[in-house]
TrEMBL record:
InterPro entries per UniProt: HATPase_C_sf, Sensor_HK_TwoCompSys, Sig_transdc_His_kin_sub3_dim/P
Name of the protein in its database record: histidine kinase
Region of interest (Disordered), ranges: 276-298
Main enzyme class: transferase
Entry-linked Pfam families: HisKA_3
Length: 422
């Protein structure tokens, strides 16, 4: 089983590395032997010291029981020395748990004082290694325990009872270690879920920021492209006719000034709207709807465009939802802006049809191809070529569809359908 634990410099390969400190760790290799040399923490020192003391106490108890058979003093001294070395080996139990457990278990055949170290090492293997390895080490300890009782028979218990006692002790220690291992894996799993939730939250925030930037760019394009194209039309007229009467020049300059002022005002409103929390039902948001369509058409007519509007909306004055009305306004605005940029001097037909329950259809059509147009109206207004792409995204977000292209009659047609619930 693969779990996750915090680490200093790596991140999970399955998740974007937005949060530092996520390290993918196999619990079977999460020990100093495979991670490299690490310094013990205060907790590690306390645990190791307790294990050392417990191993000594268990070893001395077993030693006293085994020495009741009164072996030679040399054997007793050798038993204590080897048992002390086995207890000292516990300080490296995290680095080589399986190797030390097997060696100490074999020593326990003839060394009684090493029994405590064998118990601690068996527990360590159950905590840090897979169940198959833990069971194998437990089996080795059962066999060596039986051989130990063959060398040092218990004067009180029968051999069958010593077999039962040894098996029960080994099983209890191994199961306890497996329980500790399972709990650690659960904690690591919960920690990983927390890290994953934090990463997903960071991704959601980043996506929200990206969508907000797109929304700002879309609104800027819709508003400023319309206003600046009007400014370009009027400025082009002044450039083409520098000897125009003073009254015409003053009027044109006034229109330019008013358009520039309105562009700045629109920019302020858009920035204010986009800084506020998004809510389509907010009545205070200064967003245009179909009610502002006549002023938009009048501005285009003042710039020299021939715009014809056919309003065939049903519903006895019923208004579509704000999102739909705003999207319809943007469709007409973008289409008129594109005509000024790419087909000056042509007539434009704007048609609105539909009603509640049947949807709202907006169609803007102009003749293609176009000639040079009237003097002073041929402009070279730069464009990004992405206006219709952004418009299509806006319409799709509103639940509608957008079509544009040249018809068989030679007209350029922009047609949008938007849902209008009954």
């Amino acid at each position: 089983m693969t779990t996750h634990a915090p680490g200093p410099a790596a991140s999970s390969p399955e998740l974007p590395s937005l949060l530092p400190g996520v390290l993918r760790v196999d619990p079977d290799t999460a020990d100093p032997a495979r991670r490299g040399r690490v310094r013990r923490s205060v907790r590690d020192w306390i645990v190791d010291t307790l294990c050392f003391v417990i191993a000594i106490l268990i070893g001395l108890t077993t030693y006293d029981s085994a020495m009741q058979n009164d072996p030679p003093e040399l054997v007793q001294l050798l038993d204590l020395c080897v048992g002390a070395l086995a207890c000292l080996s516990l300080w490296w139990r995290r680095r080589w748990p399986v190797q030390l457990a097997v060696v100490v278990a074999l020593l326990c055949i003839g060394v009684s004082s090493a029994a405590g170290a064998a118990v601690i090492l068996m527990f360590t293997v159950a905590v840090h290694r897979r169940w198959a390895v833990a069971v194998a080490v437990a089996a080795v300890n059962v066999v060596t325990g039986l051989l130990f009782y063959g060398v040092y028979p218990d004067p009180v218990l029968a051999f069958r009872w010593t077999i039962l006692l040894t098996g029960s002790l080994v099983a209890a220690v191994t199961l306890w270690g497996m329980l500790v291992r399972s709990r650690r894996q659960l904690v690591l799993s919960l920690r990983e879920r927390a890290y994953q939730a934090e990463n997903e939250a960071a991704l959601r925030v980043e996506r929200a920021r990206h969508l907000e930037r797109e929304r700002i760019a879309r609104e800027m394009h819709d508003v400023l492209a319309h206003r600046i194209s009007l400014l370009s039309v009027h400025a082009g007229a002044l450039e083409y006719r520098p000897d125009a009467p003073r009254e015409d020049v003053v009027n044109a300059a006034g229109v330019i000034r008013a358009s520039a002022h309105q562009a700045l005002q629109d920019l302020r409103e858009i920035i204010g709207v986009l800084r506020a929390p998004s809510s389509d039902d907010d009545p205070d948001r200064p967003q245009p709807t179909l009610a502002q369509l006549p002023p938009l058409v009048d501005e285009s007519r003042q710039a020299g465009m021939r715009v014809t509007v056919v309003d065939e909306l049903a519903g006895d004055g019923a208004e579509p939802p704000p999102v739909v009305a705003r999207c319809a306004y943007r469709v007409v605005q973008e289409a008129l802006t594109n005509v000024r940029k790419h087909a000056p001097g042509t007539g434009v037909y704007v048609t609105l049809t539909g009603g509640p329950g049947g949807g709202l259809a907006v169609e803007v059509r102009n003749r293609m191809p176009v000639g040079a147009g009237e003097p002073g109206t041929s402009l070279d207004i730069p464009g990004t070529g992405t206006g219709l792409i952004g418009l299509a995204e806006r319409v799709e977000l509103a639940g509608g569809s957008l079509e544009h292209g040249i018809t068989r009659d030679g007209d350029f047609r922009v047609h949008a359908w938007l849902p209008w619930p009954a």
